[in-house]
Design a protein that fits this description.
Helices cover about 50% and strands about 5% of the residues. It has a domain at about 40-260 and about 345-455 and about 470-475: Serine Threonine Protein Phosphatase 5, Tetratricopeptide repeat (Alpha Horseshoe). The protein has 19 helices and four strands. By secondary structure, the chain is mainly alpha-helical.
């Protein structure tokens, strides 16, 4: 909806400016196929996609549901509380909005930038725009295939020309994602004009976009650890070597505003719905590690009796699957305002994640020393990013908790680093590795292994939608987690 309002506003302004002197021919041209997105320039679309990808792909429903699945948060009201109790997750209307965000909103816009800016397109020569769009398309498609499995790719985003796209295998999509990133790296190195401020993530910094492409390649290679353990590790390390070199290059959106329509989506969810509380699992994990991040990230629960001053309010995590409704935020802890606020940054991929990927890849190859170094550096960078922890505190934490490296330790620290806004990646890690183990030991049942397909897709394209329905979402993994194609 925001996209259509924005484009309508731009068209309306243009009509006001030129309306007094338009000829009939000009008016006929303006009136021709007004909904055709091919008429929108890459300069108008780039700001839009660099907002919409972090907001509508990274930061909305898929992230909120994944958060309770991996026990970053617990659902304490309405749909998220039901999801935490494993009720209603087979409902195909659950993800209609997210499917539409990706397939009717984000991907068509990215495709238009790629088509118009590439050789032979109406705006050929804008190859930096194209490279950015390919990076964001690769990321967006990874989210889609990771949560659903087989999805449309080769025939996706064609609008009225193809309303019933076929579904590509996840293996093929992962190949195409890597190809997209390879193409993006070439496009970004073309020397084409920078989009500058039209790029609301890196302001047209080609070096940062190139390092993002390599970092994402490392993430996606590592995702195939169960498919090709050694090969995926070698490929991940090769890509990571050209990825982020420090935290200043993180793929993070930092342009949210305090205006109602520009706020961070998690902050909007908290204000409008308040379906989440911080999970007991997160609280107890950090308490067991004496982790200095706990009090900086998690606020005390409200004092049930403010008239008494016997003791300070305590941090109280909500047990996943709780029967307590806490929409009023009275019983359990929430994130601190320093974490969850209107203008909070939205991390999409970070340097600390890349270090944890390197640690895991080295571990698979038997390079224990390199794995330990990368693991400890990942913790160091995560603690700096999350709470700006001073080096002495980090050193003490590592000495107490991170002197040996194992897959379990790596994934646990990644899980902590992914809190609060990167729950989709934590969900991917759990499905890939079974870690953290407590997620599988849920008091009701483990989380689903994938999301259901959207009902509106079943209504219009049922012949192509894979036959994974109902409770099969709990029993049929996606391909890279050991499932069928």
């Amino acid at each position: 909806m925001k996209k259509h309002r924005y484009i309508s506003y731009l068209i309306a302004v243009g009509l006001v400016l030129i309306g007094g002197s338009c000829s009939d021919d000009t008016l006929d041209e303006i009136d021709t196929n007004p909904n055709s997105p091919e008429e929108v320039s890459v300069n108008l679309l780039l700001p839009q996609v660099t907002v919409n990808v972090p907001t509508a792909v990274t930061g909305a429903d898929l992230s909120w549901y994944s958060s309770v699945f991996v026990q970053h948060t617990a659902g304490v009201h309405a749909q998220l509380q039901e999801a935490d109790r494993r009720s209603g997750l087979e409902n195909n209307t659950l993800v209609n909005n997210m499917w539409n965000n990706i397939y009717a909103g984000v991907l068509p816009d990215l495709n238009i930038i790629i088509e118009r800016g590439s050789p032979g397109g109406e705006e050929e020569g804008n190859l930096v725009h194209v490279g950015i769009a390919k990076v964001l398309k690769a990321y967006t498609m990874s989210v889609a295939t990771d949560v659903w499995g087989r999805v449309p790719y080769s025939q996706a985003g064609q609008g009225v020309e193809n309303r019933t796209p076929t579904y590509d295998s996840q293996q093929q999509i992962y190949t195409e994602i890597q190809n997209l990133l390879d193409e993006a790296i070439v496009d970004l190195a073309s020397g084409a004009p920078s989009p500058g401020g039209q790029d609301l993530i890196y302001s047209g910094n080609v070096n940062n976009w190139t390092r993002t492409a390599y970092s994402l390649k490392a993430r996606f290679h590592n995702r195939l650890s169960n498919i090709d353990p050694a090969g995926s590790a070698q490929a991940a390390l090769a890509a990571a070597a050209q990825g982020f070199q420090n935290a200043s290059q993180n793929l993070t959106f930092t342009r949210y505003t305090a205006a109602a329509i520009g706020e961070h989506p998690w902050y909007q969810e908290s204000n409008d719905r308040s379906h989440h509380a911080v999970s007991q699992s997160f609280v107890t994990t950090l308490q067991s590690l004496n982790d200095p991040r706990l009090e900086a990230l998690v606020a005390p629960a409200p004092d049930p009796d403010p008239s008494t001053e016997d003791e300070d309010p305590a941090i109280v995590g909500a047990p996943n699957g709780t029967q307590t409704n806490d929409q009023a935020n009275e019983s359990f802890s929430d994130p601190t305002p320093a974490v969850l606020n209107a203008t909070a940054p939205m991390p999409i991929m970070t340097y600390d994640e890349l270090l944890f990927i390197q640690a895991e890849a080295h571990l698979r190859l038997g390079n224990t020393g390199e794995a330990l170094t990368a693991y400890q550096n990942g913790i160091r960078e995560a603690m700096r990013r999350q709470i700006n922890a001073p080096d002495p505190a980090i050193d003490a934490y590592i000495a107490a908790n991170a002197t040996t490296v194992s897959l379990e330790n790596i994934i646990r620290q990644k899980w902590i680093a992914f809190w609060l806004f990167q729950s989709i990646e934590a969900y991917n890690d759990w499905r890939r590795t079974g870690l953290p183990a407590f997620i599988s030991q849920h008091q009701i049942s483990p989380p689903p292994l994938r999301f259901p397909y959207a009902q509106n897709e079943l209504d219009t394209n049922e012949g192509n939608v894979p036959d994974i329905r109902g409770t099969q979402i709990f029993s049929v993994p996606v391909w890279w987690a050991g499932g069928p194609e």
